[in-house]
Design a protein that fits this description.
This protein has five helices and no strands. With 167 residues, the protein is mainly alpha-helical. The mean pLDDT is 94.
Length: 167
């Protein structure tokens, strides 16, 4: 595969994940939120805020992926034809930065997930226990999103690093 084909595969994968993120948020998490609001006890009411944040984050980032990634290959192809070596090097450095970022956020989500689980046991009030359960679910959801994005990015980075354009 050439550079533009690698860009296209990566961008299509991210756009598809954006669809999944939005779909799962709308079809699963939003109905759960409405159920918690309508029928919730204190434990369930504590889960509303973090799960609401999870929906907002998934819809926002999923929407961003869905709106920006389909256009990305065409933009890169246009720039690539102007100066292949420079554009390739810039893309490679950008992707290396994303790799570091995803690695960091995976550790961050894991640490916050662990703290949320521990926080559940630190409180006896149902509302706060629900809040910590909700945060644990939120951080788990964010971790899953980043694991999938990062796994695809690592394949893209590997393909770029094996290219002869890196020099």
């Amino acid at each position: 595969m050439n550079f533009i084909e690698h860009v296209t595969v990566w961008a299509k994968g991210d756009a598809l994940q954006g669809k999944w993120m939005m779909g799962i948020s709308l079809l699963v998490v939003v109905p759960v939120l409405f159920s918690l609001i309508k029928n919730g006890n204190y434990l369930q009411k504590g889960m509303i805020l973090p799960l609401g944040l999870l929906v907002v984050l998934n819809l926002a980032y999923g929407g961003f992926l869905l709106s920006s990634k389909p256009k990305y290959p065409a933009e890169m192809e246009k720039l690539y034809h102007q100066n292949p070596s420079l554009i390739f090097k810039q893309e490679y450095e950008k992707v290396k930065g994303f790799d570091k970022s995803y690695t960091l956020t995976k550790y961050l989500w894991t640490a916050l997930l662990t703290l949320s689980i521990l926080g559940y046991f630190g409180f006896s009030q149902e509302y706060f226990q629900g809040l910590f359960i909700g945060f644990a679910l939120m951080f788990f959801g964010l971790l899953i999103v980043d694991v999938f994005l990062h796994s695809r990015l690592k394949l893209y980075l590997e393909a770029l690093s094996q290219s002869n354009l890196l020099g």
